[in-house]
């Protein structure tokens, strides 16, 4: 299965190709996507993205995870979260969300087993 293209991104809205849902924040992986609901893991801008936010994507067998920190990069990504990915043999890219989507789509287009979590506002 290939990773789905992120078809559009604007403040507070993301669309994934092949999916009718408009997301605010989303998780994507080879073969699927869903809303990234921060309430599931108690995530906030600080301390930010936790390993628990990434477990679902990691379990899909990805080789790279792209983390979009928001349009103004308000969402933090602690070193422990990047270490979690590295310990699982997964490359981590942590970027401003517009750049993260560009990088994710480029990797997906090359057939890389890439996943991601993206915050579409601040």
Please provide a written account of the structure:
It is a single chain. The chain is an alpha/beta fold and 122 residues long. It is built from three helices and eight strands, in the order βββββαβαβαβ. Strands 5-4-8-6-7 form a five-stranded mixed sheet, sandwiched between helices. A three-stranded antiparallel sheet has the order 1-2-3, with helices on one face. Strand 6, helix 2 and strand 7 (91-95) form a beta-alpha-beta unit. The chain is globular and about 30 Å long. The model has no long low-confidence stretch (mean pLDDT 97).
Q: How is the largest sheet built, in terms of strand order?
A: 5-4-8-6-7
Helicity range: 10-25%
Could you name the ranges where pLDDT drops below 50 across 5 or more consecutive residues?
A: none
**Class per helix and strand makeup:** alpha/beta
Distance separating the two termini: 31 Å
Number of strands: 8
| Largest β-sheet summary | 5 strands, mixed
Give a quick set of tags describing it:
25% helix; 122 residues; alpha/beta; single chain; 3 helices; 30% strand
Give a nutshell description of this structure:
This protein is an alpha/beta fold. The protein is built from three helices and eight strands; from the N terminus they run βββββαβαβαβ. The strands form two sheets. Strands 5-4-8-6-7 form a five-stranded mixed sheet, with helices on both faces.
């Amino acid at each position: 299965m290939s990773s789905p293209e992120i078809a559009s991104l604007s403040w507070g809205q993301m669309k994934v190709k092949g999916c009718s849902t408009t997301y605010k924040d989303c998780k994507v992986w080879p073969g699927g996507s869903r809303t990234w609901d921060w309430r599931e893991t108690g995530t906030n801008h600080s301390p930010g993205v936790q390993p628990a936010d990434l477990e679902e994507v990691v379990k899909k067998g990805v080789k790279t995870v792209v983390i979009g920190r928001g349009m103004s990069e308000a969402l933090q990504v602690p070193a422990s979260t990047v270490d979690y990915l590295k310990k699982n043999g997964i490359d981590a890219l942590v970027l401003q969300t517009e750049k993260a989507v560009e990088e994710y789509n480029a990797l997906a287009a090359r057939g890389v087993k890439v996943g991601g979590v993206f915050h579409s506002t601040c």
